[in-house]
């Protein structure tokens, strides 16, 4: 009986605090590596002055770039390729804010510029691209134009 209660308690804890990490906007660098494994993506790392760029080449041919500051925070993500990546996954807790902002918009390129979130998306079948960043998380000296 006690072991059944213990198992039930552990199951509730695991539901309340999921352990799978995601390299989402505002996440941390450790999540980049778990995404690589989960998405079966090839990983290339490019260090820059104020950040590190992690390129994930997905089997679909789409490239997802995750920009990580020296403090270990994912401050921006970008994508381009023949298929649109899961924006819910990439934007994480910012996805709802993005979705609310574009609900009244039309088809095609979308631009969301809010104090806590900037997202550019566009493209067409077999040629999607976009980028998203949190202005407050940009490292000092890094311009938004560096996110490609």
Task: Provide the fold topology.
Blueprint: H1 2-16, H2 30-38, E1 42-47, E2 51-57, E3 63-69, E4 74-81, H3 87-91, H4 95-102, E5 110-114, E6 117-124, E7 127-133
Antiparallel strand pairs: 1-2, 2-3, 3-4, 4-7, 5-6, 6-7
Cα radius of gyration in angstroms: 17 Å
- Which structural class do you get from the secondary structure elements? alpha+beta
Distance between the termini: 56 Å
> What order do the helices and strands follow?
HHEEEEHHEEE
Uncertain regions spanning at least 5 consecutive residues:
1-21
> Approximately how much helix is present in the residues?
25-40%
User: How many helices?
Assistant: 4
How are the strands ordered across the major sheet? 1-2-3-4-7-6-5
Q: What is the count of structural domains?
A: 1
Main pleated-sheet profile: 7 strands, antiparallel
Short description:
It is built from 4 helices and 7 strands.
Features:
single chain; 148 residues; alpha+beta; 25% helix; globular
What report would you give on this structure?
It is a single chain. This protein is an alpha+beta fold. It has one domain (2-146). The protein is 25% helix and 32% strand. The chain has four helices and seven strands; from the N terminus they run ααββββααβββ. A seven-stranded antiparallel sheet has the order 1-2-3-4-7-6-5, covered by helices on one side. Strand 2 (51-57) and strand 3 form a beta hairpin. The longest helix has 15 residues, at 2-16.
């Amino acid at each position: 009986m006690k072991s059944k209660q213990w198992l039930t308690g552990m199951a509730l804890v695991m539901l309340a605090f999921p352990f799978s990490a995601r390299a989402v906007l505002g996440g941390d660098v450790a999540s980049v590596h778990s995404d690589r494994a989960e998405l079966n993506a090839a990983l290339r790392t490019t260090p820059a002055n104020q950040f590190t760029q992690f390129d994930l080449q997905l089997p679909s041919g789409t490239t997802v770039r995750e920009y990580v500051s020296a403090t270990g925070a994912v401050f921006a993500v970008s994508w381009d390729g023949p298929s649109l990546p899961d924006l819910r996954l990439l934007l994480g807790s910012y996805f709802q804010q993005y979705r609310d902002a574009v609900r009244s918009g039309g088809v095609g390129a979308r631009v969301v510029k809010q104090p806590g979130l900037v997202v550019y998306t566009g493209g067409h079948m077999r040629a999607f691209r976009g980028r998203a960043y949190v202005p407050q998380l940009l490292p000092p000296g890094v311009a938004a134009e560096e996110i490609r």
